[in-house]
């Protein structure tokens, strides 16, 4: 459920895995998931293997709400390895049955799987598997992956993953636990992130490097596109499951999703956002008194803009970090109260000033319009809204919950219309070229901006997508 102030896109989930018989693997996974909480807040789960059996606990809510000290101790026992998952639903409803990791019995024993991303051919695969007699317990595309692994499970688990990879289309970063090893797998385009760390001679997998930092693990490297890694008693092993395709890392990881202290595919998120602010200043110099960020994702870009432009940086908007998740209020008046509980404008900083406000994106426009209104109410003389990404024109099929295309404000209004809707004196978006300059030589997916989908789109949307593309 979205907050009344929240029209941002949401990432689907974060994954974590550790093989460390000498460590408290359930507790370390808990801390790793805590660091990845920004990637999903609807459900959390941990599966632990002792080398024979796999235990799992999962529930709806935040990591700290799902796991108590008692539950962690029960999971721990003589655990040798664990995988974990935090989820925001994009495929499948937000229900406990869809929470991960998924744990199943198959012909080689027990298996647990945690998945980040979306498959674009999940519907066709589900139909094919159902015709072969497969029974599905959830509505998530992750269960399709489990069924495929089981289908190919006569040989080694690594062989099963190679064959499964040949069937999958779309974006995925997987962590899989068998009874005696953990495996990680990343799609051939590398759309979704996955990295490897080392802790006292043992190995860890995480969606972002911040998950490694939290438990004291040392970053080793990223899992490469199309690569399958195995972690067992002998250490780390690698196998190229599918030839790497043209790399297409999700640009929104750097624009908004990832934690600022993470480094993914050799690019630090804080540095990339600072560069976006610098590029904004070069593309759109504005005569103003102060530069302020929309907290928190606009913070580093605003610093970059201030650095490049010479205009002073100020914290004109303050975020209340103690406001938890709330239900959507039934009246407009109560919705406005909810917005003020989450964000407040600092009148001493804003009053009488020409303000440049930096944000990461505009999806529906509701958040931006309410923030501009807050600034006006405390006396902002001018409000210039600068966005660290191009207009969002297309839905994401790779694991981001963007709106249906008809609800994306950039498909309904031109830039002047959006500026008028949000109430700003001017509105500027960073160009695709500016995003790419900020990200250096990293090849990224910009499909939500330009409609060029590197890993395909679902069959049922192709005709509609072609119609959308022709209108742009």
TrEMBL record:
Pfam families: GATase_6 (PF13522), Pribosyltran (PF00156). Its cofactor is Mg(2+); [4Fe-4S] cluster. Pathway: Purine metabolism; IMP biosynthesis via de novo pathway; N(1)-(5-phospho-D-ribosyl)glycinamide from 5-phospho-alpha-D-ribose 1-diphosphate: step 1/2. It is an enzyme of class 2 (transferase). Its EC number is 2.4.2.14. Binds 1 Mg(2+) ion per subunit. It catalyses: 5-phospho-beta-D-ribosylamine + L-glutamate + diphosphate = 5-phospho-alpha-D-ribose 1-diphosphate + L-glutamine + H2O. Mg(2+) binds at residues 297, 359-360. Keywords: 4Fe-4S, Glutamine amidotransferase, Glycosyltransferase, Iron, Iron-sulfur, Magnesium, Metal-binding, Purine biosynthesis, Transferase. It comes from the Bacteria. [4Fe-4S] cluster binds at residues 250, 396, 445, 448. The active site is at residue 13. One of its GO terms (molecular function) is 4 iron, 4 sulfur cluster binding. Residues 13-234 form the Glutamine amidotransferase type-2 domain. InterPro entries: GATase_2_dom, Ntn_hydrolases_N, PRTase-like, PRTase_dom, PurF, PurF_N. One of its GO terms (biological process) is purine nucleobase biosynthetic process. Catalyzes the formation of phosphoribosylamine from phosphoribosylpyrophosphate (PRPP) and glutamine. In the C-terminal section; belongs to the purine/pyrimidine phosphoribosyltransferase family. This is Amidophosphoribosyltransferase. It comes from Desulfitobacterium hafniense (strain Y51). The lineage of its organism: Bacteria, Bacillati, Bacillota, Clostridia, Eubacteriales.
């Amino acid at each position: 459920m979205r907050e009344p102030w929240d029209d941002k896109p949401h990432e689907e989930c974060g994954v974590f895995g550790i093989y460390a018989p000498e460590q408290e693997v359930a507790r370390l996974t808990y801390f790793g998931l805590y660091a990845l909480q920004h990637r999903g807040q609807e459900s959390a789960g941990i599966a632990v293997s002792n080398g024979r059996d796999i235990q799992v606990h999962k529930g709806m809510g935040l990591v700290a709400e799902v796991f108590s000290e008692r539950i962690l101790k029960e999971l721990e026992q003589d655990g040798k390895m664990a995988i974990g998952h935090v989820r925001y639903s994009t495929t499948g409803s937000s229900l406990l049955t869809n929470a991960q990791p998924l744990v199943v019995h198959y012909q080689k024993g027990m298996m647990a799987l945690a998945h980040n991303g979306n498959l674009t051919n999940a519907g066709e695969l589900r139909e094919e598997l159902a015709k072969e007699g497969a029974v599905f317990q959830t509505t998530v595309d992750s269960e399709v992956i489990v069924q495929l692994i089981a289908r190919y499970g006569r040989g080694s688990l690594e062989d099963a993953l190679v064959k499964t990879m040949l069937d999958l289309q779309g974006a995925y970063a997987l962590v899989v636990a068998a009874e005696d090893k953990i495996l990680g797998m990343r799609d051939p385009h590398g759309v979704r992130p996955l990295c490897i760390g080392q802790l006292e001679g043992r190995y860890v997998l995480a969606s972002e490097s911040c998950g490694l930092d939290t438990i004291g693990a040392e970053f080793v490297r990223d899992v490469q596109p199309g690569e399958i890694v195995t972690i067992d008693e002998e250490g780390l092993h690698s196998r190229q499951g599918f030839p790497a395709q043209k790399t297409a890392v999700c640009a929104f990881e750097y624009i908004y999703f990832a934690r600022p202290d993470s480094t993914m595919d050799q690019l630090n998120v804080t540095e990339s956002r600072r560069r976006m602010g610098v590029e904004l200043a070069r593309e759109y110099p504005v005569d103003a008194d102060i530069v302020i960020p929309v907290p928190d994702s606009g913070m580093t870009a605003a610093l970059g803009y201030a650095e490049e432009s010479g205009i002073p940086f100020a914290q004109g908007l303050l975020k209340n970090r103690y406001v938890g998740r709330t239900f959507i209020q039934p009246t407009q008046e109560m919705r406005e109260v909810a917005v003020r509980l989450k964000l407040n404008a600092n009148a001493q900083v804003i009053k009488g000033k020409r303000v440049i406000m930096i944000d990461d994106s505009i999806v529906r426009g509701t958040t931006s319009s309410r923030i501009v209104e807050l600034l006006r109410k405390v006396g902002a003389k001018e409000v210039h809204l600068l966005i660290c990404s191009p207009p969002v024109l297309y839905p994401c099929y790779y694991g981001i919950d963007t709106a249906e295309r008809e609800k994306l404000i950039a498909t309904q209004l031109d830039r002047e219309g959006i500026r008028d809707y949000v109430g700003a004196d001017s509105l500027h978006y960073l160009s695709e070229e500016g995003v790419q300059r900020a990200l250096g030589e990293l090849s990224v997916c910009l499909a939500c901006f330009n409609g060029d989908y590197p890993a395909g789109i679902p069959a049922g949307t192709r005709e509609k997508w072609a119609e959308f593309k022709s209108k742009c």
